[in-house]
Write a structure and sequence with these properties.
The chain is mainly alpha-helical. It contains 6 helices and no strands.
Length: 97
């Protein structure tokens, strides 16, 4: 694979990662509201999560798996339910490599 191809694929992956993180944030917001929290700060405070950081997660910031699992546990949502119907185009990119 040439350097140009690698750069193109890397750029596409980074673009897709941003989209996925935004989807994760949107899902976190959806499930938070479904749990009855109209404000992310109340949810974060009630569940001992940094309020500014949680706000960043809902906005699409990178999140570690253990942090996501802690949040989903507080929301009473399984990983399977959280990612059900998730757009996994990124994995199609890796299959092309």
């Amino acid at each position: 694979m040439t350097k140009k191809t690698i750069k193109k694929v890397t750029s596409k992956v980074e673009s897709e990662e941003t989209k996925y993180l935004k989807q994760v944030g949107d899902r976190l917001k959806y499930y938070r509201k479904k749990a009855g929290y109209t404000n992310y700060e109340y949810f974060a405070y009630d569940n001992d999560i940094s309020r500014p950081q949680y706000g960043k997660y809902e906005a699409g910031a990178n999140i570690q798996l253990n942090t996501l699992m802690k949040i989903l546990k507080a929301l009473n949502v399984s990983l399977e339910d959280f990612f059900k119907g998730f757009n996994w185009f990124l994995f199609d990119i890796f299959r092309m490599i």
